[in-house]
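User: Please fill in residues for this 367-position structure.
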C-alpha cells in the first residue's frame, strides 16, 4: 500500500530530476540550413512517425492530422512509415473462447490502429506499418496484419504491414521508389532471434542493401524499424522525469522490461549486429521509434549508418524526456514527426510538431 501511495504522489508532483529538451536542441556540424527544395525538385517525400498506438480517431490525433496534411501535398510521391507500437498496450486484441463480438475496450484498441490507417485513406499516400514490442505483446502479429489487409481492401487505401508473411519468419523486406528504397526490419523479433535464425535475418538485410545498390544505383536507403540504434531518452538510460524513473524501475523489478533498453545484453547484440551490416554500405539512414521523442544522430566514425533518426513522439501522453550527446544533431520532447524530402541533389530533413504548420527545423543532411 505504501508503494502505491508513493507512486501516486510521484505522478502528481512529477518533479524534473534531470533536464529535458522541451524546446528544440540543435547542433549542426556538416549539415546546411540553406533553403529547402522546391516542390518540383522533390523526387520522393518520406514521412516518419512512431508509437502512435494510443491515437484517437474522434477527435483525430493532432499528429495524424498533420501527417495527412503533409502527405496530401503530393500523395503520388509520398511514402509514410509508422515505426511500430501501433496498438498500446497489448497489441491487437483477441476474442476469448465463446466471444462473438468485440467488447468496448477491444474496439477502442482497434481504433488506435484505425486512426493511423486513416492517414492513408484521407491523403492517398502509401503507408507502411512496422511492428513494435507492444504489437508483439499480443503473442503474434497475424491479427494486426489481417486487419490492415482488410482495411486496405475495404477503403482502397495503400497500406501494408511489413515485414510480414503468415507462418514465416519476418525477415527484412524492401520496396523501391523513385530516389528512395525502404527496408523494413522487425526489430522486436530480431531482438529475440537466436542462432541460424538471427544470422539469416542479418544476411537478408545485407543482401537487400546489395541488391538495391546494384539495381537502384544511388537511391537513398532508409532502414525502418521500431528499436533505435542510439537514443538519449529513457530507453537509453536517461530519465528526466522522476515518476517515469520510478515506473521503469518497478517494471524492471517485476518483468523483463529492461530487455527493451539499449543497455540490455540482447539489445546491445542487436545494435552491434545491425551496425555491422550497415557500416559496410554508404548512403544509408536508420529510422526508428520506441523512444517517445524526436532525435537526429550523426555518426562520423564509420560505425553504422550515416544518420540515425528517432521519431517516436506521435502521442503527447507518451512523450518522454530527452537529452543529447556528441552525436546529436537535433533533439526535442514534443508530439510530432519527421519528414525527408529526397531530391537529385540531396536530402532535406524537416521536423514538425503539432504546434504549427511550419517545421521547427529544416536542414540538408550530409549524405
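Assistant: Residues filled in for all 367 positions:
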Amino acid at each position: 500500500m505504501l508503494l502505491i501511495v508513493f507512486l501516486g504522489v510521484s505522478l502528481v508532483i512529477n518533479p524534473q530530476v534531470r533536464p529535458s529538451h522541451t524546446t528544440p536542441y540543435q547542433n549542426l556540424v556538416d549539415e546546411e540550413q540553406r533553403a529547402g527544395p522546391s516542390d518540383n525538385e522533390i523526387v520522393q517525400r518520406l514521412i516518419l512517425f512512431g508509437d502512435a498506438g494510443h491515437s484517437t480517431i474522434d477527435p483525430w490525433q493532432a499528429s495524424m492530422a498533420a501527417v495527412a496534411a503533409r502527405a496530401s501535398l503530393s500523395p503520388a510521391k509520398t511514402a509514410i512509415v509508422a515505426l511500430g507500437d501501433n496498438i498500446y498496450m497489448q497489441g491487437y486484441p483477441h476474442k476469448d473462447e465463446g466471444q462473438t463480438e468485440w467488447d468496448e475496450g477491444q474496439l477502442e484498441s482497434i481504433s488506435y490502429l484505425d486512426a493511423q490507417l486513416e492517414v492513408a485513406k484521407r491523403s492517398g499516400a502509401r503507408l507502411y506499418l512496422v511492428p513494435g514490442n507492444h504489437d508483439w505483446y499480443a503473442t503474434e502479429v497475424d491479427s494486426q496484419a489481417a486487419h490492415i489487409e482488410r482495411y486496405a481492401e475495404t477503403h482502397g487505401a495503400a497500406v501494408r504491414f511489413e515485414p510480414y508473411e503468415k507462418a514465416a519468419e519476418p525477415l527484412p523486406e524492401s520496396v523501391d521508389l523513385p530516389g528512395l528504397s525502404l527496408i523494413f526490419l522487425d526489430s522486436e523479433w530480431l531482438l529475440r532471434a537466436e542462432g541460424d535464425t538471427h544470422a539469416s535475418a542479418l544476411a537478408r538485410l545485407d543482401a537487400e542493401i546489395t541488391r538495391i545498390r546494384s539495381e537502384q544505383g544511388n537511391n537513398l536507403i532508409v532502414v525502418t524499424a521500431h528499436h533505435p540504434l542510439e537514443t538519449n531518452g529513457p530507453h537509453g538510460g536517461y530519465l528526466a522525469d522522476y515518476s517515469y524513473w520510478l515506473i521503469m524501475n518497478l517494471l524492471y523489478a517485476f518483468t523483463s522490461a529492461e530487455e527493451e533498453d539499449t543497455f540490455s545484453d540482447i539489445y546491445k547484440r542487436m545494435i552491434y549486429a545491425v551496425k555491422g551490416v550497415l557500416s559496410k554500405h554508404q548512403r544509408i539512414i536508420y529510422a526508428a521509434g520506441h523512444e517517445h521523442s524526436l532525435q537526429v544522430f550523426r555518426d562520423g566514425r564509420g560505425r553504422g549508418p550515416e544518420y540515425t533518426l528517432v521519431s517516436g513522439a506521435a502521442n503527447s501522453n507518451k512523450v518522454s524526456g530527452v537529452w543529447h550527446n556528441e552525436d546529436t544533431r537535433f533533439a526535442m520532447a514534443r508530439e510530432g514527426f519527421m519528414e525527408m524530402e529526397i531530391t537529385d541533389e540531396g536530402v532535406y530533413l524537416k521536423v514538425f510538431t503539432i504546434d504549427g504548420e511550419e517545421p521547427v527545423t529544416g536542414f540538408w543532411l550530409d549524405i
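For context: The mean pLDDT is 93.
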